[in-house]
Design a protein that fits this description.
Pfam families: Trp_halogenase. One of its GO terms (molecular function) is monooxygenase activity. Its EC number is 1.14.19.9. InterPro entries: FAD/NAD-bd_sf, Flavin-dep_Halogenase_NPB, Flavin_halogenase, Trp_halogen. The structure is a single chain. By secondary structure, this protein is of the alpha+beta class. The protein has 16 helices and 21 strands. A seven-stranded mixed β-sheet has the order 5-4-14-15-16-13-17. The chain is globular, with a radius of gyration of 24 Å.
Amino acid sequence: MNASSDSRIRSVVIVGGGTAGWMTASALAKLLGRSVDIRLVESDEIGIVGVGEATIPQIRLFNGTLGLDEDEFIRRTQGTFKLGIEFVDWTRPGHRYTHAFGPIGGRELGVVPFWQYWRKAHAQGWAGELGDYVFNTVAARGNRFLRGANVQNSPLSNVFHAFHFDAGLYAKYLRGYAEARGVRRTEGKVVDTTLRGADGFVESVTLAGGERIDGDLFIDCSGFRGLLIEQALHTGYDDWSHWLPANRALAVPCESVSPLTPYTRSTARDAGWQWRIPLQHRIGNGYVYCSEFVSDDEAATTLLANLDGRALADPRPLRFVTGMRRKFWHRNVVAIGLASGFMEPLESTSIHFIQAAISKLVALFPDRDFAPAGIDEYNRVLQFEYTRSRDFILLHYKATQRPGAFWQRCREMPIPDTLAHKIALFREGGRLFREHEELFTELSWVQVLLGQDVLPASYHAMVDLLSDAELRQFLDGVKGVLERSAAAMPTHEAFIQRHCKAD
Ligand code: FAD
């Protein structure tokens, strides 16, 4: 045996069995095989947070890595398809726009993005809203869905989608997957953590019954409490409440109603916003709010008054502080999921961050010497992605004309320089650039900026190379193709019925 194989990680201990714990266990079991002993500890008494039902398209890569069949996954999780998020009343009451996945417009004309052409036509007063030229938005408005069809040069050839699913069922599904690949699950409550004297690394965790579990690498998936990363290692937390002041949520399921919509809806309310996530067996709803501006009782009344069907339970309260750990990886502990930080679910990013963390951990999988360069790289990349996503979420609050004290505070708050620069660049001439590992591309930013009335003062000079008549022909042509393609799709409900209806 050579020196390097001798220092390999032999055992991984995952504390927590929510979405983060079971996604991590499944991926490590699949990718590392049985070369490493993987144990997961979870407490039935504590349970899981149980929300987290809307995703972004990257989850398909994760499920693909595991080799999950998409229809089986949808069936097992009571899932539905998601084409984007509809934002209602965010810009001002009575207004709505969609942040859809996938491209904007149709074929590209040279190097100038489609929205530059749209901007000129819109300023001339004859083009419809940007969403009329976004395939997923057009399909979502008609409640249509198709996974993609073999039609060349058609928007139908690649439909960008994500999922809504029942978080509890997803964790259960992944548990079966991970256990079948050798992950050992222990039910029990961790009551103590032992640190190594020499370097402060975590040596073991102890369960309420007295069992001690040793490991080389510990993954903290214990949720908001951050059992290892915070309670044991005191890593510290960057609190972003001054930018994202919502600190509570109430979640309540209600009966399903027709039609089954293929998108998440976010509706602005007096002190925050309400989500609506359609699943096959129910609709998930919640009100994310700032407790300085509304009482819990008032929030519950607002939530319950705005459901599509009969409530199936009492509203469940959740509390949080938006922000991130100063280090996501500290010593031999990697925090994944809510243990690593919390961003409100406005753009459905949390499950993606779990996935991003797992993929980076696999890429930088350590030896038992835990060399610092890999750890620093892990923290740098994830913190960058997390911070830039925060800016994107912040934009929704900043660029609003909504009345009311809460929204006035959001509109007037100072924002990070990175966001101020992005907005200024866009206002000047519709310019947007994605930097490094930013999660959200120009396509996402432009839909929210324009959706919330941040309009560029001018458009790109190259747009004038088209005459007005050519511009009209171009935009009308794109719109017609998108409308005809969407009309050729089955309804979302019919698609699910045919391919992935849950029992
Ligand atoms: P949890 O689900 O809290 O799991 C923690 C685990 O640790 C549990 O198994 C628990 O038993 C265990 N544990 C804790 N302490 C101990 C102990 N002492 N001993 C043993 N075990 C212990 N994300 C999205 O991507 N999309 C969304 O739409 C979305 N909506 C959200 C809405 C709200 C209001 C909130 C709060 C979050 C939302 N999220 C969303 C985030 C999402 O819920 C989480 O990212 C996801 O569920 C992962 O949670 P987790 O596994 O980190 O934590």
